[in-house]
Amino acid sequence: MPDTGAALFCPEPLVSSALGLAYKVVDSDVLQQEASTLAQRLASGPSLAYANFRGYEHYLKDVELPTVNACATTKDFREGICVFVEKRGNRL
Predict the structure, then answer these.
(1) Which end of the chain is more exposed for a tag (fewer CB within 10 A), N or C?
(2) pLDDT band for position 1 (50/70/90)?
(3) What are 24-66's pLDDT values in tens digits?
């Protein structure tokens, strides 16, 4: 979802696109048309789903991320990652 709170001006647009900071990079001469096209697409889309996703995005940041970060420092978590990567059974 685009964050419509501010514009992003990046001296290296290809880098920002590769990092996921922008989903599309356009020249300034077509920026207004591209923005209008995106706005029309969003306006005709599932606005309730968009709104609910924004709420879920905040839940992820405020609740889930701190929980995962707290778990990531445990022996259980490290073992779970090793089990997955090495495709083996649990050794705990």
Answers:
(1) C
(2) very low
(3) 778 889 999 999 998 999 899 998 888 888 778 888 888 888 9
Quote the pTM value.
0.41
Instruction: Convert the chain into a string of H (helix), E (strand) and C (coil).
Output: CCCCCCCCCCCCHHHHHHCCCCCCCCCHHHHHHHHHHHHHHHHCCCHHHHHHHHHHHHHHHHHHHHHHHHHCCCHHHHHHHHHHHHCCCCCC
Specify whether the CB–CB gap between 25 and 16 falls below 8 A.
yes
Please tell me the total count of domains within the chain. Answer: 2
Q: By residue range, what is the domain housing residue 54?
A: 47-92
Structure-block tokens of residue 79 = 């073992």
Same-domain check for residues 56 and 89: yes
